[in-house]
Design goal:
Elements (H helix, E strand, L loop, with lengths): L1 H5 L7 H9 L47 H12 L1 H13 L4 H19 L6 H15 L5 H9 L9 H18 L1 H15 L26
Helix pairs in contact: 3-4, 3-9, 4-5, 4-6, 4-9, 6-8, 8-9
Length: about 220
């Protein structure tokens, strides 16, 4: 039985196992960056990427205090009057694929009308729209509400060691933000996307401008 185990090709040889023991193991605290790069100590390429902040606060309806953009006013009006259109526009700009506006705007509108008809307020649409906030946060490596709160109050050392636990907490905060501050969340996401991503309808397309022909005047004979 022992001779059969030693000659089995499925089992590693003893010499290879000894070599593997000499290989230094990766530290348990190492992780991965947003771009899929390993987090290494002293390595510039694999250095941890610090999370950036949102371009404007949640309740900044007209954008940042030091800068006013005309698109911020448009986002504020859409979020107040027609949140379904703002949500569809955000998802279309986030996916950078034309045609996704109707696929997200119509289901949102149905849930919006159903929630207002049955319960008197928009309580169903946030269940459908909050994943877009999670996608924006992951795409641009933005700081979540839970992480920002822990950093400001100083609890949990300012960060969470377990990435899976932190992500679950941030997803719950994304849902709570959409559920209790739904219109403000849509407006904040709209401002963020408009400053970071071009509209998919104009992404990589050249505009051809047709000029009318110049009028030609016949020279009069002297």
């Amino acid at each position: 039985m022992a001779a059969g185990e030693e000659g089995s090709p499925l089992l590693p040889k003893q010499e290879e196992s000894v070599k593997e023991e000499n290989i230094p193991k990766q530290e348990e605290g190492a992780g991965w960056t947003v771009d899929g790069l390993p987090l290494g100590h002293g390595n510039v390429v694999g250095a941890p990427v610090s999370r950036s902040h949102w371009d404007s606060p949640l309740f900044a309806c007209l954008g940042r205090n030091d800068e006013f953009c005309s698109s911020d006013l448009e986002v504020c009006l859409l979020g107040t009057v027609a949140p379904c259109m703002l949500y569809g526009s955000n998802v279309e700009r986030l996916s950078l694929a034309p045609g996704t506006f109707a696929n997200h705007c119509l289901p949102y509108t149905s849930l919006y009308l159903l929630g207002n008809f049955l319960f008197g307020w928009n309580c169903l649409a946030p269940w459908f729209s909050y994943p877009s906030r999670t996608a924006i946060r992951r795409k641009f490596n933005l700081e979540g509400s839970c992480e920002a709160f822990s950093r400001s109050c100083g609890c949990c050392g300012g960060t969470m060691e377990d990435d899976e636990q932190r992500e679950q907490c941030e997803s719950s905060c994304d849902f709570a933000t959409h559920f209790f501050c739904h219109r403000c969340a849509l407006c904040q996401e709209g401002r963020e996307l408009r400053r970071r991503l071009p509209h998919p309808g104009f992404n990589g397309r050249s505009v051809l401008v047709m000029l009318p022909p110049v009028e030609q005047m016949m020279a009069r004979e002297a």
